[in-house]
Amino acid sequence: MFLQQIVIGCDGIRSPIANWMGFSEPKYAGYSAFRGLGVYPDGQPFAANVNYIYGRGLRAGYVPVSPTKVYWFICYNSPSSPGPKITDPALLRKQAKELVNNWPEELIRLIDLSPDETISKTPLVDRWLWPGLSPPASTGKVVLVGDAWHPMTPNLGQGACCALEDSVILTRKLANAIKSGPAAIEGALRAYGEERWPRVFPLTVRANLVGSLLQWDNQLVCSIRNNIVIPKLVRLGPVLEHTNFECEPLKA
């Protein structure tokens, strides 16, 4: 019998553990997001689709997540600074509605139907794990997972997915190492980082670039994007290629 003391940093974007390990602070992407959850007690009216609305330096979307709830978001440009942190739900709701006051009525209604505790505003940030420049995912018996290691903008919907993938891969590595004895633990943590980096670094970069495309504010460029690029050139298969990832089930 032996005891292993392992620290797993899963403490989010502003991780003190990542800071201790020498990682840079996540970088602001130049835009922020309002988010909320519209509640329809008698049943929400939308089909099971993701709905997007594009403007100039502004976009929104909503998608049903249950028979009675619909998630929504609004991303807006604020290049110089995300502005002061706001926690007052009434002010958050007011600001969100002002951004889209001439947009489809169903979006405005979603904001109105969102309980105070579901509405938030956050600056969108990421950290690019440049090879040879960024620290490894582990130091000794301290290791990072999820946003603590690789925060990414939500433009591909892969932040939480990658955190879950991290957890499965790390669990598998540790399970095998524990069977081999204490000396194998640090090697298992290094192997986890080496396996996960080729997955999370390209996704972080790609999410950032997609966000830059969707946040354009030039009128001509936005017109080309909305009328040609998105409806005629973007194909769903290649766009969703990043979702084709198999962790393989954990063994008991």
UniProtKB/TrEMBL annotation:
The keyword Oxidoreductase applies. Gene3D superfamilies: FAD/NAD(P)-binding domain. Residues 7-200 form the FAD-binding domain. SUPFAM superfamilies: FAD/NAD(P)-binding domain (SSF51905). The keyword Oxidoreductase applies. One of its GO terms (molecular function) is monooxygenase activity. Keywords: Monooxygenase, Oxidoreductase. Belongs to the 3-hydroxybenzoate 6-hydroxylase family. This is FAD-binding domain-containing protein.
